[in-house]
Amino acid sequence: MTGDVTINPDAGCLVMTTEILRSMLYRGSEVMREVAWVIFDEVHYMRDKERGVVWEETIILLPDKVHYVFLSATIPNAMEFAEWICKIHSQPCHVVYTNFRPTPLQHYLFPANGDGIHLVVDEKSTFREENFQRAMASISNNQGDDPSSTNSRGKKGQTYKGGNKDSKSDIYKIVKMVWIKKFNPVIVFSFSKRDCESLALKMSKLDFNTEEERETLTKIFNNAINILPENDRELPQIKHILPLLRRGIGIHHSGLLPILKEIIEILFQEGLLKVLFATETFSIGLNMPAKTVVFTSVRKWDGKGFRWVSGGEYIQMSGRAGRRGLDDRGIVIMMIDEKMEPQVAKGMVKGEADRLDSAFHLGYNMILNLMRVEGVSPEFMLEHSFYQFQNAASVPILEKKLNEIEEQLSNIKVEDEATVRDYYDIRKQLDTYNGDVRHIITHPAHVLSFLQPGRLLKVKVGQFDYGWGVVINFEKRSNKRNKSETYTDHQAYIVDVLVNTMFADAPVNLIKPFNPNFPEGIRPAKSDEKSKTCVIPITLDSIQEIGNLRLYMPKIIKTDQVKDTVAKSLQEALRRLVDGVPTLDPVENMKIDDNDFKTLLKKIEVLESKLFSNPLAQSPRLAELYDEYSKKVALSEDAKTLKAKILEAQAVIQLDDLRHRKRVLRRLGFTTANDVIELKGRVACEISSGDELLLTELIFNGNFNELTPAQCAALLSCFVFQERSKEAPRLKPELAEPLKHMQEMASKIAKVSKESKIEIVEKDYVESFRSELMEVVYEWCRGATFTQICKMTDVYEGSLIRTFKRLEEMLRQMVVAAKTIGNVELEEKMEKATELVHRDIVSAGSLYL
């Protein structure tokens, strides 16, 4: 049972999608009363950002009397998942797992432009370090010195991305070697549809099939294609792929027509395809093992940037190597064309599967359905979610930490605590006031005229205290790269100061806050370290004190010799000043004449006399007691933070989001002030394939009333098409007008959401409804052939079919929505649109059914 095919709904064992099961639970279907067991296959789908929440909802909504089986090859935290099931369904859940693999795997590396493969993990799962190093060394020999550096071009066609233009000939070498060594069938994984196709075409010289195999293959292919209408059999994708398949080479990615994907799967299972170029989707949910798996790259684009393949993804794909009962071992070959840290490689080939973490998030359809069903509520769903369970799981760890801290606190006994507390509070207040004074003194208006070369300054950069240093010069900062960025007064000047630092070869700019990725540069030398005189750039807020003293300075301070001379005279001056360096008086010397500043100085005076009269001030144990009490205060702060974290983990997460979403529903008239569902809300319950709020508003606003069935289908395509397309075509007036009205309504919803405190960017929300296929859908509904509409867009054929299937699903939901409000005209219009969409290749059934 799927969205568009139901074969025998009264059978004793039903196979269905999770979405169908969820819908049955919300509708209170008869079937649910008779269910004894539910088997969830590939339950790690629950971590999927889009669909994972459907699995979670379904598991929570199922009755406690039902028993469950959850299957997955990749859940390292299965115990945590089982605990959650026990908690929400009050029944034991056993974890049965094995690390045994019937056919062990060998992992090889093939360095770009290399001439052979290196075994890095053998069948006993041992990592062969020396082979790994050998493979890495051959990369650097073949390419420039640093292939992954952004500005280098290596010796052999190395681009700045670390990719290699010769990788196609490398694949050719690998496939040929696999064939010679009889390691076929082989699946070659690539992370882009375009690469799958171009790599397959590169194999045009190779032929892996006998004449007999070619004939059998052609027969199967033609029989399968015959279920399509005649004109669809002539589609370029279908005509172009047969010559490739006849030579035993296949392609499998989501851009292929569904019927072609199924034909290729059947041919691969029958052993008529020896090499298959596939994207990651081939490794999920299909049981199609091969003897060898090849990775053309171990970096993938995840929508934000390129990253290494995760351990879980690698396990899923490499797991296709090795056929049970046929092969004594499976072979995995990774092509690498850039320096890869051994840690990354080990993490990948010996890595753990990705954890199953909840992807639970609230949706309006879910909230409305839960309001409608008796005995459950949105709050119930939040409390029982795996998301909530995982958060609450941190409570015992936090509580343990809290107990440890409280025990430490109970062991700290500060002698005469009241006096020490009094002293501590005054000193902290003094530190604050002194900081305020320093902030005023070091303001450019007051300090710049005193920063002459030779002036003594006490310098502290972040945590690093350099003590006294000597001013070399200062200058105003200019940001050439970003003109619009402005600096605060204290950050607007750079002062070069000569200080004593650890022995470092090159001074690294210390203005770390402006570049957090900077390595830890220079720091003061520790007492037992070799030190060096360095000139470091500091901003004004790193000045602690300004000395009332200047040293004689040479004109040019470039050489180490001159720097050392200045450092020596600084040391000499500090040795002579037994009572410390005299500092500039802010009022007398710096002439700061400001009433607030004078008040601040008076406050400091009062506090200093209070501090001095405290009995502790004269005590020889001052430092010891002060440190002891400081430790107690710090621990108390930690305890307070942990208590807040525990409360947060125990509270129902996403409750605020639920409140905000309920407010949106009330404001748009989907529910009453008492959270009782209105007619609008009941309509939205029927829509789960697209934005239920916007679609319901369009129905109630009469936006579909004046449209033809073909226009309705075209407008609804904006809700189901999610891929990127190069450009949106200029729309005809009959499509542009409905689109404009829909976007205005989307803006209205975004504004209400914003007012209800939901984080939403209006522009992004409106643009999430993609109009690129409106024209295509419109022409299809008006009778255009599939070949004609393919010429109108750069979207892959398979993606078009998928969009049409989703559109059919949405139109069926719109029919039910129209029934709910008794709008017969709209119901008939949507049924007509469904008929217009469901024809020819779009209506072709699956070969598996």
UniProtKB/TrEMBL annotation:
Region ranges (Disordered): 138-165
Give start and end of each Helicase C-terminal domain.
170-374
Q: Which InterPro entries match?
A: Beta-barrel_MTR4, DEAD/DEAH_box_helicase_dom, Helicase_ATP-bd, Helicase_C-like, MTR4-like_stalk, P-loop_NTPase, RNA-DNA_Helicase, SKI2-like
Does the keyword Hydrolase belong to this entry? Answer: yes
Q: Which Pfam families does its entry note?
A: DEAD, DSHCT, Helicase_C, MTR4-like_stalk, MTR4_beta-barrel
Where would I find the Helicase ATP-binding domain in this sequence? Answer: 1-93
CDD domains per the UniProt record, alphabetical:
KOW_Mtr4 (cd13154), SF2_C_Ski2 (cd18795)
In its UniProt entry, what is this protein called? Answer: MTR4 protein
- Organism listed in the record: Cyberlindnera jadinii (strain ATCC 18201 / CBS 1600 / BCRC 20928 / JCM 3617 / NBRC 0987 / NRRL Y-1542) (Torula yeast)
